[in-house]
Amino acid sequence: MLSARDRRDRHPEEGVVAELQGFAVDKAFLTSHKGILLETELALTLIIFICFTASISAYMAAALLEFFITLAFLFLYATQYYQRFDRLNWPCLDFLRCVSAIIIFLVVSFAAVTSRDGAAIAAFVFGIILVSIFAYDAFKIYRTEMAPGASQGDQQ
Question: Which of 72, 36, 55, 71 has the alpha carbon at shortest distance from 126?
Answer without folding.
Answer: 55
